[in-house]
Amino acid sequence: MAKFINPFTDIGFKRIFGQEISKPLIIDFLNSLLLGEERITNITFLDKEQPALFEDDRSLIYDIYCQTEKGENIIVEMQNKSQPYFKNRSIYYVCEAIARQGERGTDWKYNIDAVYLVAFLNFCPMDFDKKFRSDIGLADKGNNKLFSDKMRMTFMQLPLFTKEADECDTDFDKWIYVLKNMETLTRLPWAAKSSVFKRLEQIADVASLSRQERMKYDVGLRKYRDTLSVLEGAKQDGLAEGRAEGRAEGIVEVAKKMLLKGISAELVAEMTGMSLDEVSKLK
């Protein structure tokens, strides 16, 4: 049995990043993410005013909504599978959070607060560049100068993070390594020297869960694993079907070439395994 919770489950993710006692953890992670840009000293967890964008399977997609002391709204999201129109839905999600800040009346001067989307992706979208981290913002296309700081999206493709523990030089790398490998670790590599990772080690320890929390976690973990198993099965079925279709198309092309060379339909049928009627239709 794993010593630490699986952060790719709803309960595991929110236990690490979405409760009052874990505030130092999410603050430390966000500061490592935004290193050199700004420093967050406190956050407030917000009730999500907008309905969740992804309702189809909450065992695979979930998020935390919080606000910094400067008023920035940050959505920290975990996604375990791709979605149709993934980029457009991400943009819509951020824009909706911005639009909901609007107020009625003429006194409001569009004084919106920034909205950041920080997304852990436990997969690699086909239309993304093959790199671990992508930071998306509003910039002038000609000179790449920042146009506005009110909208930002950071995507982290976890399968593309390949560093081992001894290769993690920054706090950000350490966070990603721990989150990606947590369920297989027996101890957190930096807990002895870092108060943040020591706290994470305590919060993420399965033994620290109450009986009720453990029951909910076990249900969530089973659902997470079962759903991923179904997705993998569908993927394998699709690959097998594609290979079969590919073979069939290849046989037809070979049959056509044989007929063009003057080989009889009977011999083509015998050589390809096609029926005589199917071969005759190719003429």
Short structural description:
The protein has 283 residues and is of the alpha/beta class. The chain has helices spanning 10-17, 23-33, 86-99, 171-181, 195-204, 211-260, 265-272, 276-280, and strands at 43-45, 61-68, 73-79, 115-121, 133-139, 146-157. It has a six-stranded mixed beta sheet, sandwiched between helices.
Give a written overview of the molecule:
The chain is α/β, with parallel strands linked by helices and 283 residues long. It folds into two domains: 10-208, no CATH class; 209-283. It is built from eight helices and six strands. It has helices at residues 10-17, 23-33, 86-99, 171-181, 195-204, 211-260, 265-272, 276-280, and strands spanning 43-45, 61-68, 73-79, 115-121, 133-139, 146-157. It has a six-stranded mixed sheet, sandwiched between helices. Strand 5 and strand 6 form a beta hairpin. The radius of gyration is 26 Å and the shape is extended. The N and C termini lie far apart (63 Å). The relative contact order is 0.12.
